[in-house]
Amino acid sequence: MTLYKGPLLIQRYYNGEALSKVEKEAVSQIINVWRQRLQNLSWFMKCLNEPIARLANAEDNCTGHFWESRFKSQALLTDEALLSCMAYVDLNPIRAGMAKTPETSEHTSIRERINPVITLESAIRDQALANEFNLPIKPLLSFEDTIRSTCQTGIAYSLSDYLQLVDWTGRAVRDDKRGAIPEHLPTILKRFNIPAEHWLTNSQHFEQIVHRRFRKSA
Q1: From what superkingdom does this record's organism come (predicted)?
Q2: What is the rounded CA–CA span in Å between residue 20 and residue 9?
């Protein structure tokens, strides 16, 4: 009911109106279907993809399928697989020719790690969504630099190494992709003129840095 109006019968039930026995049975059948959908990943992806497709088609003034397929699920069972997937996603704007460097790529986690943008408006919006669905705001997973023998809560890699990994991978020219990071650019750490040890500190205290910046903007 948060995403859709629901049929008139459900609206009456939701508003506490008196229903006949037959109507109550119909409501129960509808609710059972909804409960199954709420446990269905395919239905979730449909609800996620459909409004995006409608907006994209409206911008292009066209109709038809926007997504190639609904979703593809792939288990990431090793640190190497996780880092490969992260780098692949972070390089999507570059491969598509929409950006030249990771730090100028919009809507990517690597840009957020390089330069967290926290405003009062975005914080209020995120908190309102979290309150509406009774869920905590989940920040980006932090880098922990080394594998711990006790409790591993972050990515067993350093932020500076990950930045260089993405920068190096993005320079590889691929025949099946239109974009790549220009070879003449300095390495990513040199472009920021920040020592690697500073990135190490940032990776260990990423969440605290974000909270400090938010408090200043507030």
Answers
A1: Bacteria
A2: 11
Residues 188 and 86 in one domain: yes
- Residues 165, 199, single domain; the answer is yes
N residues, the chain? 218
Q: Is the pLDDT reported for residue 217 higher than 50?
A: no
Q: For residue 45, how many other CB atoms are within 10 A of its CB?
A: 16
Dig out the tokens for 121 from the structure.
């408006």
Let me know if residue 72 belongs to a domain. Answer: no
User: Residue 198's pLDDT is what?
Assistant: 53
Q: Could you tell me if residue 130 is inside a domain?
A: yes
| Longest CA–CA separation in the chain, Å | 75
The structural domain count of the chain equals: 2
The two structure tokens encoding residue 37:
């959908």
Q: Look at residue 213 and tell me whether its pLDDT is greater than 50.
A: no
Task: For 143, list phi and psi in degrees, rounded to 5.
Answer: -90, 140
Question: With helix as H, strand as E and coil as C, how does the chain read?
Answer: CCCCCCCHHHHHHHCCCCCCHHHHHHHHHHHHHHHHHHCCHHHHHHHHHHHHHHHHHHHHCCCCCCCCCCCCCCCCCCHHHHHHHHHHHHCHHHHCCCCCCHHHCCCCHHHHHHCCCCCHHHHHHHHHHHHHCCCCCCCCCCECCCCCCCCCCCECCCHHHHHHHHHHHHCCCCCCCCCCCCCCCCCHHHHHCCCHHHHHHHHHCHHHHHHHHHHHHC
